[in-house]
What we know:
single chain, mainly beta, five-stranded mixed β-sheet
Amino acid sequence: MALALSFLGNLLATAYACLPPLDTQAANIAQKAQNSTYVFAGTVTEINDTHVVVAVDQYFKGSGLSEVKITDFNSHSCSDYLIVNQHALFFTTGSMGGTLKAVYDGAFGSIRTFDATTFAEITAANKCMASYENGLLKIPCITTKGLEKVYQVFLEKTQADNRMELVLTLAKPAPTIEEQAFVDSIEVLAIAPAAAHIEVKVTGYFSNGCGSLGTVYINKIDNEFSVTLTQLQTGTICTTAIVPFEKIITLKTAGLASGDYVVNVNGKQTTFTFYTSTIESQ
Length: 282
């Protein structure tokens, strides 16, 4: 019994040490970058008692080797329990060629998840200035705006002052594909008697970050409103995250007879009752 209580006490102490104080917040990406010599995205390839080995994919601050060793991870951090093949954003100090030291902020840890949000934050924090030296152009960070177009970038020498300039040209429109959007639910909103129109709230999601709502096709046959809600897949570089959407679709009901009607949006159905007068609805 005493052994069990001792084990439980140690477990609770470890968990408590891992938790940050309630009145503290994690440092933001810009703050962590300011306190770091090297910031990079990479994948853990080896873990031992003294350090971890990380294969670097991209440097956001500083530059260096394609593989580095990092030590001094905070043993009381909730987020620094690394595993092999873990991909993350690393913040370090030290000298390249030696063993780098992790920069952490208490129990909030040193590393950050590397995703679209942290990518945007770290590129904004460090501005990721391109450099051209000894015939080599380095562009450490590339962000895209307006995925509806595909661009080509060329490095050209100006005749006037012999400078090198980047020239951005439109290569071709990205492919646009119109297909049915995935609809999760539909709801007919409040209906007033003899209303000239009703509204239907449609919720669903896009399968990636390049999805957007397209044309809405509405067809009424007998007592059914058949609605086709399309989506556009535009762009060549898309995030894989599911993106939810909500759409209000207006259906014309002026002149309808009293009765029950069906709304079908991309296979999802619901019904509503329409009244031509206040008396009927009571």
